[in-house]
Specification:
Mean pLDDT: 74
Structural class: mainly alpha
Oligomer: single chain
Strand order of the largest sheet: 1-2
Number of strands: 2
Radius of gyration: 33 Å
Largest sheet: 2 strands, antiparallel
Helix content: 25-40%
Strand content: 5-15%
Amino acid sequence: MNLISPININLNTPINLNTPISLNTPINLNTPINLNTPALEGTRKFFPHPNQLTISIGEGENRRLQSIPIFQQPLTPIQYQDVGNDPRLQSQVTNFYYEKVLKWINENPDFKHLKKHYNLLKGRNGEEIIYTMLRLFVKYSKANWYDLKDQTNYNLIKQYLKQKIGNF
């Protein structure tokens, strides 16, 4: 004897109130139930909530009550703040990489060939140049601004900036 059986719910067949509901009775959850019908007369106590239907499942000792939602409330969409468009975050990341590029040009032998661009980057448009390069990196790599400082992206951006400044 199988004590645990799935309930067969058919969303297209209406509930027949004249037959007892068993494990294999199809249930239509889209049809509203009128509590004033003669078949449900005196059964108001079995409806603990107006949006739930309580049915009896099983036979004999295994008989139990099961509540089924009749109507579902619409879900309220969750709105997340788009951190990637935060100008403060973009400014912080740009400043971080701006200072790193100047340090790499002075100290890293891989960036030695970029010394000719040092004065241009040190000037007043240097941060704007780095910002534009980072913005293009985010756009084409589909990365997020808040992920640019991760170790994986850090090495990738280091190589990217080296190539872009070299082609500048």
